Amino acid sequence: MRRININNALPGMELAKTIYGSNFEVLLNKGVILEHRYITQLKGRGFLKIYIEDKESENIVINDPISDKIRIMATKNIFNTYSMTKSILEEIEADATDAVMRNINTSKFKRSFHDNPYFRKLCENIGPFVDELLNQEVLSGLHSIKSFDNYLFEHSIDAAIMALLMGKRLNLSVEKLKQIAIGVFLHDIGYIFIDENLINKSDKLTQLEFEQIKLHTNYGYELLKDIETIGAASAHIAYQHHERQDGNGYPRGLRGTNKIDKGDLIYMDEEKMITIAEIAAIADYYDACISDRPFRAALRPDLAHELVRVGAVSQFNKELVDCFLQIVPKYPIGCEVMIINGRYRDFSGIVASLNRFEISKPKVRLLYDNNKKKIMPFEIDLSADSYNTEMECIS
User: Fold this and answer.
1) SS3 239
2) Which CATH number does 68-327 carry?
3) Disulfide check for 289: which of 134, 259, 273, 299 has CB 3.0–4.6 Å away?
4) Model confidence over 60-106: pLDDT tens digits?
């Protein structure tokens, strides 16, 4: 299995992962042989990456850390929670911040949100979601297939998976892992109070527009803070996931300590960044970087990985970045790569497997030579390479 750009998809290729629509209905099942019309329809729906099976990627396995059943159940519940919550909004101006806050904080609105059956299902199903991840150690690859329409919901799932694996590596309690899960699932719910045209604007935002976008953190916190069933900690994930260690984040410009605080905290309105929100900040940032958006193409996974690494201390909690680097590979399995130095310079191929002790030095299956001609595939093990071979992702 490997991941390719939709522009490189050809009729006759075999689809390796099921593709779901904006309402999470099945569009194309795993194993379907692509036709020209399928490829055209996927492009039209905003799918820019797909997974295929072919001889070149034979026996390359990308294990999703959660089952399709759990992923779809959680994603549908997030989608429906957003949709039903948005349907009960009163008529308010998108830029009238006070009006939005008043609307959110009415007892009618809070009660309607709390009684939302999909929100209740989301909370009830947190246990199975967390349980499926307890046996996982690292992320092997890039799992979801995001379109522009389902981005917000798939992003919430993928960011939650990453955040939970970090929490597990830190030996956080199951209760705290559940707080992380529900908090990351709903960390962007404040966007429902902001004009969709602004959220999906392809041109550069004006300063005023960016100030409106930033309010999603305040709105999300106001919506979640009084929901006893999820706890204040989860609400602070929505509030703080854009805060940064140096105080240059938003909405409150909080500063971090670059240390992990595992203690039992009272999550009130004190001027303090909390660890589970700092975990969410890293997961949110990385997954957003590697996802295609209407206003920019996805960054290469190795570049996004490097941005997190160099962002330690100034942007992200240094000790948490160290944890991130232990569970998220720089070169995910199934990703196409090019060698940039040494004996195989300019050869290209696919990441075939990870070394669990050095996850950023994988085995690579080389498929093309330095003249881009097909070769008999063979694998090199970067963890055993005495020449310090370097490479970069090309998809």
Assistant:
1) helix
2) 1.10.3210.10
3) 299
4) 988 889 998 999 999 999 999 999 998 887 655 545 778 888 888 88
